[in-house]
Amino acid sequence: MPVNIEQQSGDVLYQRELYRGLTRLHWDLRDAAVLSLLDSGDKYVVDLGCGEGITLQRMFLRFPDKKLLGIDRMPENGLATRQFHNKS
Fold first, then answer.
1. Residue 31 has pLDDT above 80, yes or no
2. Quick one: pLDDT at residue 33?
3. Sign of the alpha-carbon torsion through 21, 5, 38, 59
4. Neighbour count for residue 33 (Cβ, 10 Å)
5. Residues near 6 by beta carbon (within 8 Å), at least 6 away in sequence
6. Which of 9, 10, 19, 51 is deepest in the core (most CB within 10 A)?
7. Burial (CB count <10 Å: 0-12, 13-18, 19+), residue 50
8. pLDDT range class, residue 4, cuts 50, 70, 90
9. What are the tens digits of pLDDT across the range 39-87?
10. Ramachandran bin of 47, using left for φ above 0, alpha for ψ from -120 to 50, beta for the remaining angles
11. Is the pLDDT of residue 11 over 60?
12. What is the maximum span of the chain, computed from C-alpha positions, in angstroms?
């Protein structure tokens, strides 16, 4: 799936493929900030604009007892999220 909705042609880009180097550092810091906002008493978490579910994956690993829901504008991203989650 495209990294953004405007990409109409060319090779398909996946966020996970771009998730290295300085980009990885950025997402690691961002995810740490997001995860720090979750309370252990929270039962449900909704990730709006979840993309391919990289942050959802981290939430699941850290809080396996929570009910997680990822919503994205691009249906392909939801499919990628489910496919990756089913592999792990």
1. yes
2. 93
3. negative
4. 9
5. none
6. 51
7. buried
8. low
9. 878 899 999 988 888 888 888 888 888 898 888 888 777 777 776 666 6
10. beta
11. no
12. 45
Q: Residue 1 has which token pair?
A: 């799936």
3-state secondary structure the chain: CCCCCCCCCCCCCCHHHHCCHHHHHHHHHHHHHHHHCCCCCCCEEEEECCCCCHHHHHHHHHCCCCEEEEECCCHHHHHHHHHHHHHC
For the chain, the residue count is 88
Task: Please compute the mean of the pLDDT values over residues 4-20 and round it to a whole number.
Answer: 59
What pairs with residue 68 in β-bridges?
45
Q: Which amino acid is at 49?
A: G
Cα separation of 4 and 2, whole Å? 5
Q: Which domains does the chain have, with CATH numbers?
A: 15-87 (3.40.50.150)
